[in-house]
């Protein structure tokens, strides 16, 4: 295909170099008369490519180890007999290589002739026409005729292939179209094994094999009766990307044709922040292909980023602004001017009646940094208060607090590449294979190379035991006891003298360590003393602690299973303690790394979305910080911290908070205690929802402003490794505006009434310039820099002009690292006779957050509904069988869903996801929260499970209300 990358970055190109890059001493050789110097261990094929000479190949690709099966890449080497394969032959000093000769041309044509003899010659109508390596290689080696003919009687149609081997009996091999996103056509398979190797080496799932021999050999997914849909295949797309023919092909290419141009952008799903080439025909998006130079994903992807982009054109998407006076009324479509005037008038009226602090905003972790910056600016410079919060309140706010206290910065310490240097990896409260699958693939590759794994999780998540990977230790703790487990590990390290004393003396406060050591050494913190509390066998915990302390480079990755607790901040500080105790900070392969859930949750925090912090995590009470923004914005900044999301809802119920602008978040589905959230929203006089769809929060809205998808905007996202990546507009906004423009229009509508100066941004680059001018950690960031180097990790400033991949190399931002006292305090949520089970929640691979996007794609094929995982013992004593409807009840509420019997959860623990609003799992969660940040305690809810006949009364009432609230009046003629 013609590939116009806009722009081409970083320096280099998209050529497939055949084999992976190596590091080592320089070696100089000559290829076709051209001298080239490459690292020791480099293949001849890659060396030739470095010299600009592309040796023909079919089985080789530079994201996998050399295989040497196709025999197309033959070369001649002076002083050596025969014609070795260039992909499997390493370079040597002084080597002289010839890639072109009559002999090589004849041999390559002969090889290609054999491939083509068993391949359909339907190139003109093939979906891969113009994008087929087999076709390209046939032309490159000069093959113009095929002497070998397939046996008579073979035929090809749309669904079946007749293949014939040595005999005359035809064997029907069906075309596998079971996967929603791609097809497998065995007739076109050349058995190069690239798909099998990609599944093993890149993804690490090992779902594909080669079955049969000779002409009957073919790729097979799963067991004898499996299809691509029913096998272990996770639809990451690595096999499709690796396939050199149309054997594995996106269905979108069949439907829309071969793409002819591409734009590089950044995925808008999880916090990994994968780079993609959005490939198009005209303005029609055909497919998303992971970008090989993406520094976060290195050319890999998952099912969401690779395939689940169809929500952007889904029929449910709202493209016209809508308003209504009361939530009991149907929606009325209006033009933008009327909607913005209505919203501005409502918000100004509320402030005039109830005071300037009676309104606020919720910024979006799905929108760009620039858009989020403008929303928090709206509340501070137009609403004139600090009532701004973000979804990090309900996910990673304890990360900001805990790491800020320990290290002085509120973010992870490493880049994702760092895990390839880890010797021991500890995962606590995270499920990377489902929540951060591209990172999980990198991690599994490192584990297969010999690194050890410790998993601390109530559930047996996939990473505990999967193909060729098994954790050295799985500590299935009782939900709510993270602090006790982490402190017990520290007890072992300190009492057994396993800590890194040199690191502690040099990098930490030694006097503070003495106090901490005295605390953690107390017998009550020993694994034996905490075993009854945590449920973790003392011997297992001791062994895990010893492994982490003595096993070499130790890295810690954690997720919402750490933060969404009443002691979330304490656990984060405890994790930081473990890293400092063992000296695992400040070099490759170590560190403390939060796995952020949403694509820009790190960025939304960086941009000042919290009510007590301006951009860059600087407290709003500091006069010198406020002065920066007062000069930039020409207004006076309120020094009083604003309301957090839970405080906004409480104040709304009490009657003092009356107006909310909510961009790109669905708090009715994502936040705890759904009934309380609904009551707070219902009590407000103006709720403005700015989103793609009429989400659950919009049931209580008065203004709906249609948003733009990530494909329709320019800007930046900041991923979990602090990497700032460009988002580029792939197509024009279907709603007419990018999201930053909508916020600016609303601000100007209010400023016009107030007599203030209008905002005059014309491009997100100008917003980033303002961010850089006012935020020290972003001081060196500009669109020009990002175009030049691809991406940077903050801090990026005069001291680090190319960004900071690794934090705390020589010291901590706060000076000395602080070892914090981590006293375990039991949650107020207790199980008992009435509610004897503990519910914990999480995510699943196919879906993202509240499912608003992925539920509007074919990803529902894998997860059409939320289910309740329950141990077979707990199910049996309750009379519950596989697939039964069950009632899930807590002190807060109840819902119904189907049961899934599994030993992934321990007896006494149940688990569900929150992707489907029909279930509304958060109707049962409590309003308990983290002591420091109000992050909800999603992970510990006392519940009872019992058989049910179907939806609960609350679900029926909720669905009726939702249906009424989504009525839209027909457009006026």
Automatic annotation (TrEMBL):
GO terms for cellular component: membrane; oxidoreductase complex. InterPro entries: 2Fe-2S_ferredoxin-like_sf, 2Fe-2S_ferredoxin-type, 4Fe4S_Fe-S-bd, 4Fe4S_Fe_S_CS, Asp_de-COase-like_dom_sf, Formate_Dh-H_N, Formate_DH_asu, MoPterin_dinucl-bd_dom. Residues 260-316 form the 4Fe-4S Mo/W bis-MGD-type domain. Residues 954-966 have a biased composition (Basic and acidic residues). Residues 945-973 are annotated as: Disordered. It comes from the Bacteria. Pfam families: Fer2_4, Fer4_7, Molybdop_Fe4S4, Molybdopterin, Molydop_binding, NADH-G_4Fe-4S_3. Residues 180-211, 224-253 form the 4Fe-4S ferredoxin-type domain. One of its GO terms (molecular function) is NADH dehydrogenase activity. The keyword Metal-binding applies. Gene3D superfamilies: 2.40.40.20, 3.10.20.740, 3.30.70.20, 3.40.50.740, ADC-like domains, Dimethylsulfoxide Reductase, domain 2. In the C-terminal section; belongs to the prokaryotic molybdopterin-containing oxidoreductase family. This is Formate dehydrogenase subunit alpha. The lineage of its organism: Bacteria, Pseudomonadati, Pseudomonadota, Alphaproteobacteria, Rhodobacterales.
């Amino acid at each position: 295909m013609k590939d116009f990358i806009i722009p081409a970055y970083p320096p280099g190109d998209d050529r497939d170099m055949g084999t992976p890059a190596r590091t080592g001493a320089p070696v100089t050789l000559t290829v076709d008369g051209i001298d080239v110097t490459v690292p020791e261990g480099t293949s001849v094929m890659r060396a030739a490519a470095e010299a600009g000479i592309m040796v023909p190949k079919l089985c080789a690709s530079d994201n996998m180890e050399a295989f040497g099966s196709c025999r197309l890449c033959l070369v001649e080497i002076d002083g050596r007999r025969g014609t070795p394969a260039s992909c499997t032959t390493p370079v040597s000093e002084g080597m002289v290589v010839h890639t072109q000769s009559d002999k090589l041309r004849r041999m390559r044509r002969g090889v290609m002739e054999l491939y083509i003899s068993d391949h359909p010659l339907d190139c003109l109508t093939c979906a891969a026409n113009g994008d087929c390596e087999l076709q390209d290689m046939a032309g490159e080696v000069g093959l113009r005729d095929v002497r070998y003919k397939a046996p008579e009687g073979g035929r090809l149609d749309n669904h079946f292939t007749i293949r014939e081997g040595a005999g005359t009996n035809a064997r029907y091999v069906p075309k596998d179209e079971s996967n929603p996103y791609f097809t497998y056509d065995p007739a076109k398979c050349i058995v190069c094994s690239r798909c099998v190797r990609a599944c093993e080496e890149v993804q690490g799932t090992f779902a594909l094999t080669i079955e049969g021999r000779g002409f009957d050999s073919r790729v097979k997914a799963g067991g004898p009766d499996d299809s691509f849909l029913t096998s272990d295949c996770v639809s990451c797309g690595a096999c499709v990307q690796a396939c050199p023919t149309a054997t594995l092909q996106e269905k979108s290419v069949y439907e829309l044709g071969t793409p002819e141009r591409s734009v590089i952008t950044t995925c808008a799903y999880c916090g990994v922040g994968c780079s993609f080439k959005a490939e198009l025909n005209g303005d029609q998006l055909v497919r998303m292909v992971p970008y090989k130079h993406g520094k976060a994903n290195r050319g890999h992807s998952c099912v969401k980023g690779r395939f689940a982009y169809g929500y952007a054109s889904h029929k449910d998407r709202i493209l016209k602004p809508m308003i209504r006076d009361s939530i009991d009324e149907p929606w009325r479509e209006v033009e933008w001017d009327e909607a913005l005037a209505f919203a501005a008038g409502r918000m100004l009226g509320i402030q005039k009646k109830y005071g300037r602090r009676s309104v606020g905003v919720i910024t979006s972790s799905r929108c760009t940094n620039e858009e989020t910056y403008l929303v928090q600016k709206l509340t501070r410079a137009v609403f004139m208060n600090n009532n701004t919060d973000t979804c990090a309140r309900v996910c990673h706010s304890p990360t900001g607090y805990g790491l800020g206290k320990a290290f002085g910065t509120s973010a992870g310490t490493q880049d994702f590449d760092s895990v390839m240097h880890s010797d021991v990896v500890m995962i606590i409260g995270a499920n990377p294979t489902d929540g951060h699958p591209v990172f999980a693939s990198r991690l599994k590759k490192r584990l297969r190379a010999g690194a050890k794994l410790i998993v601390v999780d109530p559930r047996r998540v996939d990473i505990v035991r999967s193909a060729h990977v098994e954790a050295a230790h799985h500590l299935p703790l009782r939900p709510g006891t993270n602090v006790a487990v982490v402190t017990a590990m520290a007890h072992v390290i300190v009492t057994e003298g396993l800590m890194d004393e040199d690191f502690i003396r040099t990098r930490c406060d030694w006097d503070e360590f003495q106090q901490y050591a005295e605390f953690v050494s107390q017998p009550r913190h020993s694994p034996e003393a905490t075993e009854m509390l945590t449920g973790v066998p003392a011997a297992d915990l001791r062994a895990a602690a010893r492994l982490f302390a003595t096993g070499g480079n130790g890295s810690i990755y954690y997720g919402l299973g750490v933060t969404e607790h009443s002691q979330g901040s304490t656990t984060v500080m405890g994790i930081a303690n473990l890293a400092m105790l063992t000296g695992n900070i400040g070099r490759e392969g170590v560190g403390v790394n939060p796995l952020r859930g949403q694509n820009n949750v790190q960025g939304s925090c960086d941009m000042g979305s919290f009510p007590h912090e301006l951009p860059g995590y600087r407290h709003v009470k500091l006069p010198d910080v406020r002065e920066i923004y007062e000069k930039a914005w020409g207004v006076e900044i309120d020094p009083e911290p604003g309301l957090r999301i839970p405080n906004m809802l409480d104040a709304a119920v009490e009657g003092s908070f009356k107006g909310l602008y909510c961009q790109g978040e669905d708090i009715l589905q994502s936040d705890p205690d759904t009934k309380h959230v609904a009551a707070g929203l219902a009590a407000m006089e103006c709720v403005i929802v700015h989103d793609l769809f009429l989400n659950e929060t919009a049931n209580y809205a008065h203004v709906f402003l249609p948003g733009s998808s990530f494909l329709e905007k320019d800007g930046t996202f900041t991923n979990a490794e602090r990497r700032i990546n460009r988002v580029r507009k792939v197509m024009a906004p279907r709603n007419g505006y990018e999201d930053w423009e909508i916020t600016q229009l609303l601000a100007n509508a209010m400023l016009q009434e107030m007599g203030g100066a209008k905002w005059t941004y014309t491009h997100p680059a100008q917003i980033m310039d303002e961010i850089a001018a006012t935020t020290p950690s972003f001081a060196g960031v500009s669109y020009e820099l990002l175009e030049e180097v691809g991406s940077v990790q903050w801090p990026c400033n005069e001291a680090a002009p190319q960004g900071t991949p690794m934090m705390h190399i020589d010291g901590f931002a706060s000076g000395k690292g602080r070892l914090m006292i981590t006293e375990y305090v039991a949650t107020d949520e207790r199980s008992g006779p009435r509610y004897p089970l503990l519910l914990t929640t999480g995510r699943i691979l196919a879906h993202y957050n509240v499912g608003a996007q992925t539920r509007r794609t074919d990803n529902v094929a894998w997860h059409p509904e939320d289910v309740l995982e329950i141990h077979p013992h707990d199910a049996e004593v309750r009379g519950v069988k596989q697939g039964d409807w069950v009632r899930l009840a807590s002190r807060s509420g109840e819902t119904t869903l189907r049961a899934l019997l599994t030993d992934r959860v321990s007896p006494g623990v149940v688990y569900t996801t929150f992707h489907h609003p029909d279930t509304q799992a958060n109707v049962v969660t409590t309003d308990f929260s983290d002591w420091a940040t109000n992050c909800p305690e999603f992970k510990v809810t006392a519940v009872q499970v019992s058989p049910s006949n179907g939806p609960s009364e609350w679900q029926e009432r909720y669905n009726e209300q939702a249906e009424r609230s989504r009525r839209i009046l027909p457009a006026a003629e």
